[in-house]
């Protein structure tokens, strides 16, 4: 089969491309399609500081394509007519996706004889959508993984072709989590291509277990401080440190910025959950049953 690989410039996309190029049933990588993030999404990512884990320089995927002597196609990333037409013009049997900021239209997928397969960094049907890493930490899941699934009209809802998992320790940095998921790509991609080459269907997802992972809304508070214990708050903030900043304020209601998340302790706070006491640029974030140390705290 001839494969076209569509992805963002991430370790996951590069690992999927490498696995596809080495599979025995793949005759050629006919094109590597590099998706840009849309202007709206770029603004959202900047404001929320929720960059994709392990994101690398934008031309890394293209450099890999050149090494494979594959045609390089660049998309605008807004999913409009120009992007859909560019995809429809590609001559390949299968479209293999590892990161795309828009949905591929049904009529475009139909032009690929074997359809499309998406490598989604989550244990589908959990966390369907654009921000699986954020919602993984928000839900406090103890494991995650990579799922290769058939592409259908609804995002991340197609039959599962292959899946692998990895444990998520408390407070695990999200970039390390992203690298661990990328390390699963070789096995998952090969097993998915094995099934396709053999003409075997995937396994339907259990809709009763599905959760959504929509875009992160900028400047929106996501932590329910009155409900979560300190370890869960710390896991969320420390795990996403450098990728997401929760809007916080001191006891007087003044908005604060912080540069980093330190340790937590279980000493009972003497101020309302979700407020920060600041001394010399170091903050103590009060939770329901403990404190979290914040560094580089200043008035917003």
Arrangement of strands in the largest sheet: 3-2-1-4-5-6-7
Please mark out the parts with pLDDT under 50 across 5 or more consecutive residues, or reply none.
44-52
In total, the number of strands is 14
Q: What is the CATH C-level name of the largest domain? A: Alpha Beta
What is the molecular shape? elongated
* Radius of gyration, CA atoms, in whole angstroms: 21 Å
Number of domains: 2
Structural class: alpha/beta
Classify the helix fraction into a percent range.
Answer: 25-40%
Task: Write the CATH fold name of the largest domain.
Answer: Rossmann fold
Mean pLDDT: 92
Order of helices and strands: EHEHHEHEHEHEEHHHEEEEEEE
User: How many separate helices?
Assistant: 9
Sheet bearing the most strands, described?
7 strands, mixed
What is the CATH architecture descriptor of the largest domain? 3-Layer(aba) Sandwich
Measured by DSSP, the beta-strand proportion falls in 15-25%
């Amino acid at each position: 089969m001839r494969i076209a690989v569509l992805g963002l410039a991430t370790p996951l996309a590069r690992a999927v491309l490498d696995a596809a190029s080495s599979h025995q049933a793949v005759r050629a990588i006919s094109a590597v399609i590099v998706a840009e993030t849309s202007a709206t999404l770029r603004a959202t990512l900047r404001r929320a500081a929720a960059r994709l884990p392990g994101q690398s320089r934008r031309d890394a995927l293209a450099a890999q394509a050149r090494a494979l002597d594959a045609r390089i196609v660049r998309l605008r990333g807004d999913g409009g007519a120009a992007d859909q037409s560019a995809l429809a013009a590609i001559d390949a049997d299968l479209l293999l996706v590892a990161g795309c900021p828009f949905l591929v239209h049904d009529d475009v997928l139909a032009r690929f004889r074997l359809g499309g397969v998406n490598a989604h960094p989550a244990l589908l049907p959990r966390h369907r959508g654009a921000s699986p890493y954020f919602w993984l930490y928000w839900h406090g899941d103890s494991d995650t993984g990579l799922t290769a699934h058939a592409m259908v009209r609804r995002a991340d809802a197609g039959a599962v072709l292959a899946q692998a998992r990895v444990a998520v320790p408390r407070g695990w940095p999200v970039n390390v989590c992203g690298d661990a998921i990328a390390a699963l790509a070789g096995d998952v991609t090969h097993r998915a291509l094995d099934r396709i080459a053999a003409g075997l269907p995937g396994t339907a997802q259990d809709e009763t277990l599905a959760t959504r992972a929509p875009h992160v809304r900028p400047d929106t508070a996501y932590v329910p401080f009155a409900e979560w214990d300190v370890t869960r708050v710390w896991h969320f903030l420390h795990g996403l440190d450098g990728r997401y900043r929760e809007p916080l304020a001191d006891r007087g209601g003044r908005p604060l910025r912080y540069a980093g998340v330190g340790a937590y302790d279980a000493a009972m706070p003497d101020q309302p959950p979700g407020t920060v006491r600041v001394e010399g640029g170091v903050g103590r974030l009060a939770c329901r049953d403990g404190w979290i140390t914040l560094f580089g705290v200043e008035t917003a």
